[in-house]
């Protein structure tokens, strides 16, 4: 009976760890207070590179409360495959902040999937850059609006 109890306890611990494995502080308070990036954001025109689409939070929903699910889909084109090793995720500030180490637990060739992203209130711009197996690169700026 003790063995069964230990197994159940271990299972509960593993389940709790896996459920929170992709919860992360995406942007820290002190980073949110950094000065904004200078100049306008430049984007390229039509590209055959992979698509980058913000799935959650829904961009049309307006401000969201933190923590929230942060899900980004990578959409390969023309039979190419996404190379996760080429992904970069940057918080756009006067001194850019590399967010890749924070999103790595939820990063795959299909995109980014974080169940509980912690972000301070405010408007935040995050650049996601991805490259496919054909060497085509896409860079997209995601807008996050987080309510108080």
Architecture overview:
- With 148 residues, the chain is an alpha+beta fold.
- Helices cover 18% and strands 36% of the residues.
- The protein is built from three helices and nine strands.
- Strands 1, 2, 3, 6 and 7 form a five-stranded mixed sheet that branches.
- Keywords: Signal.
- Residues 1-23 form the signal peptide.
Please describe the topology of this protein.
Layout: H1 2-19, E1 23-25, H2 29-32, E2 51-56, E3 68-75, E4 88-91, E5 97-98, H3 100-103, E6 107-108, E7 111-118, E8 122-131, E9 137-146
Parallel strand pairs: 1-7
Antiparallel strand pairs: 2-3, 3-7, 4-5, 4-8, 6-7, 8-9
Keywords: Signal
Signal peptide: 1-23
Which properties best describe this structure?
148 residues, alpha+beta, Immunoglobulin-like, 4-stranded antiparallel beta sheet, 36% strand, signal
**Overall form:** globular
Total separate domains: 1
CATH fold description: Immunoglobulin-like
Q: Return the average pLDDT rounded to an integer.
A: 84
Structural class label: alpha+beta
- Report low-confidence residues grouped into runs of 5 or more: 3-21
Give Rg in angstroms.
Answer: 18 Å
Number of helices: 3
| Text of the CATH class | Mainly Beta
Keywords: Signal
